[in-house]
Each structure stands twice: as structure tokens, then as C-alpha cells.
Here is the input.
Amino acid sequence: MVKGATVKETALKERGSKAPAKETGVLIKDMRVSRSMRVFRVANLAFLLVVVFLTLYPFLNILAQSFSSEGFINAGQVNLFPMGFNIETYKLILADSTFWRNYGNTVLYTVVATAISMVLTTSFAYAIAKKDLKGRSAFIGIAVFTMFFNGGLIPNYVLISSLGLRDTLWAVVLPNAISVFNLLIMKSFFENMPRELEEAAAIDGLTQYGVLFKVVLPLSKAIVATMVLFYAVANWNSWFQAFLYLDKPELFPVTIYLRNMIAGVTTAGSAGGTTENMGQIAANIQSVTIILTVIPILCVYPFVQKYFFSGVMLGSVKE
Amino acid sequence: MAMRLEVPPESVPKDAEAGTGKPRNKPGGWKLAIKRDWRLYTLVLLPLAYFAVFRYLPMVGNVIAFRQFQPGGNIFGEKWVGLKYVTLFINDPSFWQAFQNTVILGVLTLLFCFPMPIIFALLLNELRSQKFKKLIQTVTYLPHFMSVVIIAGMILQNFSMTGTVNQIGQALFGTTVNFTQEAAWFRPMYISSEVWQTMGWGAILYLAALTRVDESLYEAARIDGANRWQQTWHVTLPAIRPTIITLLILNIGTFMAVGFEKILLIYNPLNYATSDVISTYLYRVGLESSNFSYAAAIGMFESVIGLTLILSANALSKRLAGTSLW
Here is the structure.
């Protein structure tokens, strides 16, 4: 809330101070500058649009390949548009029950992991945002230290294995349950809440739990939504935990389905193709899987992008 | 990424306890604190347990670097073997090759991936049309939200024998290169895709800092006869300097962790000579060959270097630039 106001204020200030500068800037010298400025602006816009194209290109290329037939892909003829239009591969993947099961797993892991992360992050952030909580700086220190030093791959692997979490959902959802980065964003949000509000609630006889659930959380919908998106996107995209700890294909998230395809573990053959055209069909089948995995992210992308931006701003403001 | 990682203790309002009349934060007042705030303490229990088990226990678990370990046995190992595994990896040429590759990729990342978002943000900031600015931002943030598996898939397809890069090469030079297999091409492939992935999103914090630059500074510079370039150099860049330094410290801190997951997905034995980094090497040694203690020793070495790097980068910037993370 506070942040939005200041941004608006600076924007107003800018507009206010720019206008007179333009009016007085009709000297001959300024005209010369503005001509080279105009050249620069056009070149700049052109350059940035090239950047936009280059950013989008790999996506468009994959999309084109996913609808192309293998002959054209293999001849290196597919770039922006599909060649030899073909939707057989889509049918093939969409008919693969493993693909759907893995997709379902991704949804399940994302929901469970995000729920756990939210409970842990919110409760910890709320407590450490209380500036008079005894032991607070120790709690913060415990969390922040893990940003800069971690146990490393092997001890983590040994731990998860010996806890008996292999081939369970918990191996995927627990190890990265709290992101300290997200925790600090939430903490600074809670810190910026007006104290009077909570004090008034306390006078009304609410306990600290009551204040949290009935006063603070209802006022924190924006930050909660942001955090849910942060965690959900991270979980949806994650693959490494599953790769390390899950051995049974029926437990894989869809990222592992895709990974195995890229690594050549799953070949077109096992996904339903014939053995002769295995190598040829690979690029096409990978593209189809990539497109099918990307779609949900693209659908939520507009919201995600907006919330991510405000979240990052919230976490980065140093004042 | 978070610039404010810690609130300095002096920022705690002095009048925090005004009005309540209760003694707060008296030394040794744990009993009182728990009596007053026990509900808050119950809230920290689960998260603390999480940190203890999933973050701090593995740190202690590093002890297996100095102890013999049997898979399925005690997670802290069976018996002390001293520096056996440390001397083992110090004399291992494959480790040093991975070390060298890590440093080279880290330096290249700093050289290319760190400045690009700054330049990009400055150019974006010069745009007058808010509509274009928004469009460009929306598109260039996109790779940030993609799973690394998808990114890896795209890299391998675009650099494949029939992919776009080779199509262009074929058209221009009449030759094709097996980019994904040849060691000499791994670094360009890795760095260019890294720039593609991080440039847009990396510009966010700079763009935010740019909106906070005081417009009157530009006016003053203009009155002094500064041209556009001089304004950028003397006003804009100093204004975003704290952001640049903070991100530089964080980048140096993660120097050793160069895109482990991405490399694991796109490398192969044919390009190990340039692609194998410490983290992928210890992954293979530890988890594919089950030399847990040996890999743990390498991992600990890596973590200690990472911590040292970030502490020294922070100390250096505190002394030289007056900006630091904590």
C-alpha cells in the first residue's frame, strides 16, 4: 500500500518537473540534440524489438516443430512456421496415460507443497515481524544464514533417504518448504502494517492468534496471493527433488516425463512410436511435450508477472 | 535478490512498548517473554523444526567428509578417517578440471550475464512509449517463469544439427556444427542461453531504482551543459549504483553454484572437458558412483568457497563503496 503511493508520487513529481523543462527547451542547441535523440530513440526501439523477437523465437520455434512432420524437422527446414502440418504427435502424447498421471502428480505436488510452504512461511514471518519478540534476531539469523551456506547435495540426499522419504510425496514437498527470500518479503510486509490496528484488536480482547487470523491475514490478501504464486510457480517448475528421490514412474511429475524424453531415456518408441522413426520423431515429440507443459504457465503468466513484480519490489526496497 | 536482508537493531522503535506498561525485552526475561508471547512462539516451532531438520542437519551431515560412510548406515558415518577424502580430491585431476570449468563459467557469467540487465534497463528507461515498454517487459520476463527442464529442451533443440542456429550457419557459411556435442561450443551455448534467460527479469530491480532517480538532478546536469550520454554517466549510473553493487555481491556469492541444474540437463560425456563443473562432478561421483564421503568432501569445499566469496565481496563493498548486504 505504502509502496504504491510513493511510486505514484514520484511519477507525479516527474511529470510535474518535466513539463516546464520541455517548454523552456526551445533553444537552437536543444533542437540539434533532439534530432540525434530522435535517431537514438528509433534505433533503441528497433533494437529492443529485436530483443523481443529473440526472446520469443525459441518458443515459436518449438511451437512450429510441434506441429511439423518429422521429415521437415530432420531436413532442418522448420523455423517459425510448421512444415508438413501434423497433429498426430499431439494425439499420441495426449493418449499416453503416463503423461496424464505425471501431469496430475505435478498438480498434486504443487498444491500440497504450496500449502505447506504458506503455513510455515506465514507463521514464521508473522512472528519474526514482531520487533519486541524475544529471540527474534536469533530466529532471523537462523533463517538468513541458510541463504549463504547449505549442507550440500550429498548430506541432503543421505538425510532424505535415511528418513525413509524416498518414493514419497514428502521428498518432493518438504526439503524446500521455506524460501528465505519469500520469508523476508513477508516479514517486511507484516512489519509495515500499522501497529495501532493490532493494538486495537488486542484491546478488543483478541489473542495473538485472533489478531493474526481475524485482522492481519484478511488485510494481507495481496501479499498472500503473491507468495502463493511464488511458491506455486517454483513447485510447478521443479524437477530436481523428484529426479533425486522418486524412482517409480507413476510418481513422477511432468517435468521428469519431459526430462526423460530430452535425455533420451524415454524414446518415441516407448511413448508409442515405431522403432524405425525413433530418432526422427524425437524433436517433434519433445516439442509437443514442451508445449503441453508450458500451456498452464502461459495461462497464469499475466497474473503471475504482475504479482511477481510487486513482490520483488516489496522485497527489494531499501529505505 | 532481497536487498534488505536484515533490519538493523537500532531501527526498532524506542517507544514500541509505550502505553502497554509491561516490561519488555529485559535481559533474562525469558519467562515473562514466553508468558506474554507463547502463542507467537508456537508459531515459530514448526518453521524452526523445518530449518533444523532440512537445513542444519545436512550441514552437520557434512561430517561424513571426514568419516567413512556406508549407504543405509549412520547418516553421520561409521568411523573417522581424517583428511583421507580431502587429499583424495586434491589429487584428482577430474576435480581440478571441474574446478577450472566452474571458475571459467562463473567469470563468463559475471562478464556477460551481469552487465546485460543494466544495459537493458537503461535502454528500456529511454523509451517514451509506455505501451512498448510494457510489452517488452512482459515478453522478456517470460523465460524466467519457465522450468529449467523446458529451457534445456529448447537449448538442445535450437542448437541441434537441424536446429535454428545450424540453419543460420548453413545459410551463411555453408557448414553445420554439432554444438551440443563439441566441447569447444559448450561455453558459448551455455552463456548465450543464460543471457537469453536472465536479461529481462534481471533488469527489474534496476528499472525500479531508475524510477526513483530525482528528476531535478537531470535538470541540473542539463543546465551545466551535460549531454544525454553525460547525464547517463553522471546522474543515472550513480543513482543505481547501490542496486548494482548489491546484485554484484549476490552474484559473486553464487559464483560457484553456476547453473547446476541446467548443466546437468544439457551436458554429456562428449563435452565434459568444458561442461563438467564442481556440482555436476560431485553429483556423478556421489550419486552415480555412490562415493558419498568423497563427494561430500568436494561439496563442503564448494560451500566454504561460496561462503568465503560472499563474505569477502560484502566486506570489500562495505569498505570501497559503503554499500553492503548487512
In short: Chain A touches chain B through 116 residues (CB under 8 Å). Confidence is low (pLDDT under 50) at residues 1-29, 267-280 of chain A. The CA atoms of residues 108 and 169 of chain A lie 9 Å apart. Residues 28-66 of chain A form the longest helix (39 residues).
